[in-house]
Structures are given as structure tokens and as C-alpha cells.
Design a protein that fits this description.
13% of the residues lie in helices and 34% in strands.
Length: 442
């Protein structure tokens, strides 16, 4: 064998080893995709539980808990979702990647109620532990797990589930509920019905949102599915001559840039990561490129490789006054960035103020019909007040099964209506300045 062939063989073997080592050691992260009310996270920094923010990475070993009025959602790479109701505590002891590419996710439900909508991709393993029970999912399923003081219940809406107890395996079919007596040797019983929970409607609305907006628009842009529905709801894909298909958030406005609002957050063993404050702010900060096009403004372009933990997507053709984002090189504290134009004023009753430059801030997911139409109004006027559908309603409180504690009241979420615009939307008009576009936060 020639010296050249030997060298090439050594290089190829080294590259193979590097790929295998990368697969074994790659930091796998999932997304904290929805935060409502009081939600806290323990990142393992030694500070215990701290306030959680939308789009924070969730890594192996992290814990999340919700308060009396808190609800949260964690979104996985394949689009699977795990939702938490008030007074729920979850731990993520395993978020790993096998050499084969299969993802292993293990979640401990320490207390409260969690909903799971599992996509069931090939080779992926998804396990939920509660008490001494382990629920393993390998096929698509939608279910609810309630962990009380004396008993736990598993209700299966779609698919099926298998639960391993210390003494037996319990099979739960569609529209069945299994009850586990935690105080009596984990004795299990299966009923062929589903007892409703006050938060079932909230979970159902979130599923409708994910299904509708993940299946509309340009979706073949990323190796991962998480974040797709938010991109399709909060913005639009379109073709720009010379650049190809790009995505832009609604209400970007003059003076806005993609790093105007967010924070650099530090995680032990990983370092700093950029956490966007925008409700769509996941995929565009881990993949692709941000580019600035005159008369269009900032837009995101898919392509390339998934960005590393400490890096940010490539920035192309930025304006002269734009400062490239760089993670801090020292320290562990959170570095907040809040220099964007005036943002949305949040919801008051069933109304929300939408301003140019807000880029979707202050708009609850799925709450406003046809954001493309509102975008055109904001372009003309600078700001509009629009209706949230419907106004939030608080039903009576309910009691958790298996415990004597009274659960906080559920809140009805906004109804999902018309699909978001997508690739077929005509090219947007150039941005026009608004009265709010030059008013910075600080």
C-alpha cells in the first residue's frame, strides 16, 4: 500500500473516531418552548431553582417546577412535547444520543400532572418515571400522568402505553386509565374510560396549535422539527431574488435586529448559550444564518450545520452599526440584552397591542387570528390593537385525584383559528419607519 493510501486511511479512521466520539459526547439540548406564570428551573449551577425563561435549553440533569399559576412546555427535537400544569416538578436525568443516532429521553415526574405528546420516531426511547413505576414509549402516543401523594394515574388519549411496576407489567390501551396505589405495593387497576381533568382543554389547544402550524408552510428547512410551528405562526417564508427562501418574523420593523432581546445564560459543563426572548426564537438561533437585505431588513436563512453550544448562526451583510454577538468569556452570571425598539404592550382582557419592532413579543401563541393581516396594518400605522380569541376564562378549581391538595384553576387558552401564511405569501413590502421604531428600551 502506498504512503499516500496509508495516510488517507489513517485520516479516514481518525475522522470516524472523531464522529463516534462526538456522537457520544455531544451535548443534547431540548427546548423550554412555553412558559406561563411562575416557572423555575434548576440548571445545576449551585443556585438551586431560578426563574425560567422561554427558549432556555434544557439539558441532562436539569429540573423544572411550576408554581400555583405556572404552566410550561418542553419541546423535543422530533416535535414531541411534555407539558406541565401548576405545582408540578420534573427532572431530566437522561437526555442522551446513541451512536446509532437514536435519542434517549428519561423524565422523572416527582409531583403534579404532566401531558405527553410523543411523536415516536424510529430508534428513539422515551421513558417517564413516577414513584417506582416506569412508563416506556416507542410508538406515537398522547397521555396524561398524575402523581399524587397516595396514588398515580395514567390516562391514554391516543396510542398505548406499557408501565413496569415492581411486580408486573401493566398495558394501557387507547381511552383507558390505569390507577396505581402507591401506598399498597403499587397495586394497579385499569379502567376502560377516561376521567376528564381541568387542564385537558389546555393540552388539547396546545396540540392543535402544534399540529396546525407545524403542517403548514415551508417545513423542510431543518434537521429537527422543534420550533417549526412557531416559525409558521409568527412569521413567513418567501423567496428573495439572489438569496432563495428566507424567513422573517412579522412586525420586525425598521431598527430591529435578531439579537435585540434575549440573554446569555451559563450552564455548567457547557458554558454560555444565547437565549432569545422572542416566542419563535429557537431554530433561527441554533441553525442557518441571519442576513440583512436592504429594503427588507433582517431575515433568517436555513442551511449549514446545527450551531454549537457557544456559537451563534452566521451573520451576513450586517449594517455598519451592528455589533456581532459574542458569548461572554468569563463569569457565570446571566447577561441580559434589552435594546430593541418598543415592543408589544401585552394582553389586557381580550386585547393586545402590536407594534412595529416587537417581532412577536407579547403575542401569546395562536391567540391572534391571521398575523399576516395584522402585519400589514402595523406596517401602515406603526401600532394596532387587536383581539385575542377568546378572552382568558378561569373555571372553578378542581381537586387532584390521589391527593387532598386543591389544584389551582385552569385557564382557557386562546382558540387556534386560521393557518399562518407560508411560502405562497407574496413578497412583503419594504419596511417603513414607525413612530415606535426609534424608541429603545434602554
Amino acid at each position: 500500500m502506498s504512503t499516500r493510501r496509508v495516510a488517507l486511511s489513517i485520516v479516514a479512521f481518525a475522522m470516524l473516531l472523531a464522529v463516534s466520539a462526538f456522537a457520544d459526547s455531544q451535548a443534547r439540548i431540548v427546548r423550554l418552548s412555553n412558559v406561563e406564570g411562575s416557572v423555575q428551573i434548576d440548571r445545576g449551577t449551585g443556585q438551586g431553582f431560578e426563574k425560567a425563561f422561554l427558549n432556555m435549553p434544557v439539558t441532562q440533569g436539569n429540573k423544572i417546577r411550576t408554581g400555583d399559576d405556572g404552566r410550561a412546555e418542553v419541546e423535543f427535537e422530533d416535535g414531541s412535547a411534555l407539558r406541565m400544569t401548576p405545582n408540578t416538578v420534573l427532572e431530566f436525568p437522561q437526555l442522551s444520543l446513541r451512536d446509532s443516532g437514536g435519542k434517549v429521553s428519561t423524565i422523572n415526574i416527582q409531583q403534579g400532572t404532566a401531558y405527553v405528546n410523543f411523536a415516536g420516531k424510529d430508534n428513539d426511547e422515551f421513558a417517564l418515571n413516577f414513584g417506582r413505576e416506569k412508563l416506556a414509549l416507542t410508538h406515537p402516543a398522547h397521555l396524561r400522568i398524575e402523581m399524587g401523594d397516595a396514588q398515580a394515574t395514567v390516562a391514554v388519549f391516543k396510542g398505548e402505553a406499557s408501565v413496569q411496576t415492581p411486580s408486573e407489567t401493566v398495558e394501557i390501551g387507547k381511552k383507558q386509565t390505569a390507577t396505581f396505589d402507591l401506598a399498597n405495593k403499587d397495586t394497579a387497576s385499569v379502567a376502560k374510560n377516561l376521567e376528564q381533568d381541568p387542564y385537558d382543554s389546555w393540552d388539547k389547544q396546545q396540540n392543535k396549535y402544534q399540529d396546525r402550524y407545524s403542517n403548514n408552510g415551508y417545513s423542510a428547512y431543518s434537521p429537527y422539527a422543534y420550533g417549526t410551528s412557531d416559525l409558521n405562526y409568527y412569521g413567513q417564508f418567501f423567496n428573495v431574488p439572489g438569496y432563495g427562501y428566507v424567513w422573517q418574523p412579522y412586525f420586525a420593523g425598521a431598527g430591529w435586529d435578531p439579537y435585540a432581546n434575549g440573554a446569555w445564560m451559563w450552564y455548567p459543563g457547557y458554558g454560555y448559550s444565547w437565549v432569545s426572548a422572542y416566542p419563535w426564537g429557537w431554530t433561527p438561533y441554533h441553525y442557518g444564518s441571519w442576513l440583512f437585505v436592504p429594503s427588507y431588513g433582517w431575515m433568517w436563512q436555513p442551511g449549514g450545520s446545527w450551531a454549537g453550544w457557544n456559537s451563534v448562526p452566521r451573520v451576513v451583510n450586517p449594517p455598519a452599526n451592528f455589533q456581532l454577538p459574542h458569548p461572554p468569556t468569563t463569569g457565570h452570571s446571566t447577561i441580559v440584552v434589552n435594546r430593541g425598539p418598543a415592543t408589544g404592550g401585552g394582553t389586557t382582557g381580550n386585547k393586545v397591542i402590536v407594534r412595529s419592532g416587537s417581532a412577536g413579543l407579547g403575542i401569546p401563541r395562536g391567540s391572534v387570528r391571521d398575523l399576516g393581516r395584522v402585519q400589514r396594518q402595523v406596517t401602515d400605522r406603526g401600532a394596532v390593537t387587536t383581539t385575542v380569541h377568546p378572552a382568558p376564562v378561569t373555571p372553578p378549581a378542581a381537586v387532584t385525584r390521589g391527593t387532598t391538595a386543591t389544584r389551582p384553576a385552569a385557564t382557557t387558552t386562546p382558540r387556534i383559528s386560521a393557518p399562518a401564511p407560508h411560502m405562497s405569501v407574496p413578497r412583503p413590502a419594504p419596511h417603513s419607519a414607525s413612530p415606535h421604531a426609534s424608541t429603545p428600551h434602554k
